[in-house]
Amino acid sequence: VQLQASGGGLVQIGGSLRLSCIASGRTFSDYAMGWFRQAPEKERELVAAVSWSGGAKYYGDSVKGRFTVSRDNSKNTVYLQMNALKPEDTAVYYCAAYDSSGFPHRTASGYDYWGKGTLVTVSS
After folding, report:
1. Contacts of 103 (CB under 8 A, 6+ apart)
2. d(C-alpha 115, C-alpha 124), whole Å
3. Which listed residue, 24, 39, 99, 105, has the most CB atoms within 10 A of its CB?
4. For the chain, percent helix, then strand, then coil, each to nearest 5?
5. Could you tell me whether strands 57-59 and 32-38 are parallel, antiparallel, or unpaired per DSSP bridges?
6. How many helices (H) and strands (E) does the chain have?
C-alpha cells in the first residue's frame, strides 16, 4: 500500500489543522492506521491510531482531548483533526499502516508502510 499525507502547515497557537492520508494499492480496510510525529532530535512517537473498521481508537497522552483520528474506508483515507494546537505539537507528521493482528501497535517498528511526512508548525 502507498500512503500520501497532506494538510500540514503553519498555524497559530490554539488553532486547528486537519491532516489527511490517502492510501492506494490493496484494500484499505485490511490495514490499521497510525499517525506518528517526529520533532527535531526526538524519537518518532505514536500520536493516534485507528483500527481496521474505525471502531477502536488510540491516542497518546499528549494529544488526548485535542486530536481526533478517523477513517473513511470508502475514500481510502485516514484523518487527524488537530485542535488547540500547542508549540510542542510542532513536528513532521507521518501516517503509517500495518496489516498484522493486534491493536494498537504503539511503536514505529510495528508499522509496515509509511507515507512521506507533512510538516506542522505551531507558532505565535
Report:
1. 32, 49, 51, 56, 58
2. 28
3. 105
4. 5, 50, 45
5. unpaired
6. 0, 11
